[in-house]
Amino acid sequence: MTDSNRVWHLKSRPNGLPAADNFEMKALPAPALEEGWIRVENKFLSVDPYMRGRMNDVKSYVPPFEIGAPLEGGAVGKVVESRSPHFREGETVFHMMGWREAAAGPAEKFNKVPPMPVEDHQWLGNLGLTGATAYFGLLRVAQAKEGDIVFVSAAAGAVGSAVVQIAKAKGMTVIGAAGGAEKVAWVRELGADAAIDYKAEPIVPALMREAPNGIDVYFDNVGGDHLDAAFAAARQKARFAICGMIEGYNGAPPPAFRYIMRVIAARIRVQGFIYTDYLPEMGDFYRDMGGWVASGQVKSRETVRDGIEAMPEAFLDLFRGANMGKMLVRV
Amino acid sequence: MTDSNRVWHLKSRPNGLPAADNFEMKALPAPALEEGWIRVENKFLSVDPYMRGRMNDVKSYVPPFEIGAPLEGGAVGKVVESRSPHFREGETVFHMMGWREAAAGPAEKFNKVPPMPVEDHQWLGNLGLTGATAYFGLLRVAQAKEGDIVFVSAAAGAVGSAVVQIAKAKGMTVIGAAGGAEKVAWVRELGADAAIDYKAEPIVPALMREAPNGIDVYFDNVGGDHLDAAFAAARQKARFAICGMIEGYNGAPPPAFRYIMRVIAARIRVQGFIYTDYLPEMGDFYRDMGGWVASGQVKSRETVRDGIEAMPEAFLDLFRGANMGKMLVRV
Question: What is the 3 state secondary structure string of chain B?
Fold first, then answer.
């Protein structure tokens, strides 16, 4: 345990694509523990596209980050000091005080990991925010079921790769889109029935070719032309789960939709969601996903950067498509 | 009853906005009645935007019109000859053999009007396709309920004017958009709490002003910038019923959406529909809407053109926004 704690702060709000100088690392003294608090040494920090939204000064589903204040995000670590009867030294916890080396606070801000034989970082990936987003988005929001034809964008990303594998575990046909030959090859390895390289060809005709009978479900991580392709290919009563629109996070021009009118004739249902809407059902998620991860039926891949210093660049790399699977920083 | 029957045919497929020379009227001999058939003299022909879609050679929820073949559409008329035990001369029926002076065919292609004290043309409007579209779209698809704030586009049109009045009958707050001072005044007369003239000011800031607390429901007849405004103003768990996108029917450039990303944070549900999905529930519709129409709580206004010759121009006028309420041709 260190006496000081390096913490990334928001120095200025990005205008469009974020840049390194929007972030500032400061060493803060480690606070004394109050009664009921614990101190955690972070092992892994989560790096997620949704964090971009909180850097704007707009009300959304979570409050915006404040300029000059510490950034937040998922993290997993070990308890190193406890003044709470609920935690013991050495226990593994996950929590939202990421972007820093160590976290201290009231016990209720930390969650013990469930007793499962998986590696620590999984609590930020397939057994954390991204896995739960994939699970609830596919099975609850889109109500995908055995036999459905599922299209998923950013299929080599943390959420998308989980969607591909959950869909296969549940007996669906899966078409994934990703950018570049290496990602596409990995999407196939994950079990996708077809994979489209959207950097090599336009997405609309590619999807029409790979899904000649149309799609029942679209899991959207991207928005823009991928969403338009899904409109074009949707079968009757298709369901779209809208989880992210990374194309639009950094002030790109507003996307145009050539096929949106198909919403009517095909009775498409488009539904936005945040995985926290399903927190009461986390038991189902841990049971299913925990089993698949422990058995190896759902695999993960991580893009890991080392050291707290690497955090902003890891974040910027998300928008350059530099990650395969889950982006993490190992502290 | 005439010996010949003038029938509008599709002469060529429109490319973009339809024009008069896409249509051709031919006088066909009145067919002999087969056993089980009836003959109907049409009184009113329905003129609807959705007909434009059937003029394209693409598969949709109804098959396309064939070049050189008679056009079809809603119509109401009187039985003038019957070889069916189910119909008597003089009965009023509605059916889909519009665009013509008289219709003949097997009895199962015709529907007797329910026994209600309303004028004949209502079976093509508030008690027909447009009223049912408004009723099921608002109450079933969008699940609008008392206390909701409802935004409706094309609020002076046949469907939109019914939406405004049903919403008020059910205790909702209603904001309608229409083009031009006369239409806006009528939307207010119908009971809307606020009305926006989209020709006088941009729709997004106007809606933000009229709905400072946001909207729970959007009933879309228009698509494009009206839909984008609804994305901008949507409250948590807003429901959008997508009924028509008249802006896009004639090959306009694909609409761009600046606020579509709000689908995620606001958990918006967007659902396309066709009123025929709710045919098994027509009993509810006749009970509620029949009562409102008979009592005068739901009013209608018609833009009526006279004579079978007027049919194509009436249709083209829909896309010029020339109609107030339901567009009809009186044969």
Answer: CCCEEEEEEECCCCCCCCCHHHEEEEEEECCCCCCCEEEEEEEEEECCCCHHHHCCCCCCCCCCCCCCCECCECEEEEEEEECCCCCCCCCEEEECECCECEEEEEHHHEEECCCCCCCHHHHHCCCCHHHHHHHHHHHHHCCCCCCCEEEECCCCEHHHHHHHHHHHHCCCEEEEEECCHHHHHHHHHCCCCEEEECCCCCHHHHHHHHCCCCEEEEEECCCHHHHHHHHHHEEEEEEEEECCCHHHCCCCCCCECCCCCHHHHCCCEEEECCHHHHHHHHHHHHHHHHHHHHHCCCCCCEEEEECHHHHHHHHHHHCCCCCCEEEEEEC
Reported as a pLDDT band with limits 50, 70 and 90, residue B65 is very high
Residue A1 has a pLDDT of 46
Closest chain B residue to A268, measured at CA: B272
Q: What is the enclosing helix (H) or strand (E) of A167?
A: helix A158-169
Whether residue B267 and residue A266 make contact (CB cut-off 8 A), yes or no, is no
With CB atoms and an 8 Å threshold, state whether B271 touches A267: yes
Which pLDDT tens digit goes with each residue over B46-56?
999 999 989 99
Q: Which pLDDT does position B249 carry in this prediction?
A: 73
Crossing angle of helices A203-210 and A224-233, in 10° steps, is 40
Q: Say which range, A246-250, B231-235, B258-262, has the weakest mean pLDDT.
A: A246-250
Could B256 and A261 be called an inter-chain contact, meaning their C-beta atoms sit closer than 8 Å? Answer: no
> In this complex, which of B244, B253, B263 lies closest to A242 when CB atoms are compared?
B263
Size of interface A-B (CB pairs under 8 A): 100
User: For all residues of chain B together, what is the average pLDDT?
Assistant: 94
Q: How far is CA A17 from the centre of its chain?
A: 19
Q: What is the pTM of this model?
A: 0.92
**What pLDDT was estimated at residue A223?**
93
Which residues in B have their CB inside 8 Å of a CB on A?
Answer: 53, 60-61, 223, 228, 242-245, 248-249, 253-258, 260-274, 277
The pLDDT score that the predictor gives to residue B117 is 87
CA pair distance A149, A192, nearest whole angstrom? 11
Find the closest chain B residue to A220 by CA distance.
B264
pLDDT digits (tens, 9 = 90+) for A118-137: 999 999 999 999 999 999 99
**Per-domain residue ranges of chain B:** 4-125+300-330, 132-276
Annotation: CATH topology of A4-125+300-330: Quinone Oxidoreductase; Chain A, domain 1 (3.90.180)
> A223 vs B269: CB contact, 8 Å cut-off?
no
Residue of A nearest to B270 (CA): A270
pLDDT of residue A4: 74
| Fold observed for domain B132-276 | Rossmann fold (3.40.50)
Task: State how far residue A301 is from chain B, nearest Cα, in angstroms.
Answer: 26
Question: In a 3-state reduction of DSSP, which class is residue A122?
Answer: helix
pLDDT digits (tens, 9 = 90+) for A155-197: 999 999 999 999 999 999 999 999 999 999 999 999 999 999 9
Give mean pLDDT, residues B208-234. Answer: 97
Position of tokens 């046949």? B158
Q: Chain B: residue nearest A255 by CA?
A: B256
For residue B264, give the nearest of A244, A253, A267 by CB distance.
A244
pLDDT tens profile B160-207 = 999 999 999 999 999 999 999 999 999 999 999 999 999 999 999 999
Question: Does B1 have pLDDT greater than 50?
Answer: no
**Does domain A129-276 fall into CATH 3.40.50.720?**
yes
